[in-house]
Amino acid sequence: MIxxxxxxxxxxxxxxxxxxxxxxxxxxxxxxxxxxxxxEMDHWIDExxxxxxxxxxxxxxxxxxxxWFEKFSMKNLQDQRDGPSIDFSGDMLSMQxxxxxxxxxxxxxxxxxxxxxxxxxxxxxxxxxYSSLDKLYNKTILPILNxxxxxxxxxxxxxxxxxxxxxxxxxSNFHKLKQIILSHVRKMYMHKEPNILDYYDNLEDIxxxxxxxxx
Length: 215
Fold this sequence. Notes:
The chain is of the alpha+beta class. It has helices at 2-11, 77-82, 108-129, 133-145, 157-169, 174-190, 194-199, 203-212; strands spanning 20-22, 27-32, 35-46, 51-62, 86-89, 99-102.
């Protein structure tokens, strides 16, 4: 299959030489001191164009932000430990997000060179800009505290990651961030966001555990 060839050719490049490829989620993984960097190569066949479509996701995980939450998580342990602290598609980085390969191999070299160059560029940006807890805090938590960004309307993991990050990097802002997030969570609950419904009844206990537990 052409996808297997693409992965094999990527692994032969210097940039990917230290990465391991995990087949179960089609991800390149590189362990870091406190977690991992990953490039997930989501992919599917577009029958209309007889093409393989590759949709890379670039993510960073800091274990300390999520390990404490394992006892509360509704996910299985593997999924909980696979989850990123933050991730991006190419589109979120104002870069190309989907790459198309003809199933017959036509223009393979051209398409491969475009893929590897842009995946490398996006990866280098994400893995540099989000390489520490301090950088992650400055880019994600400070804008929330300053009212510069809107909070997500879906999902729940971000709540616990953001609060853990604030507790570690700047605990003096923990209560302010908590109030901002809880106000938003109540709106999500009213709209019956399914992930919020999973945790809402235990939210007070979860946040109390986070606040008074050494991470």
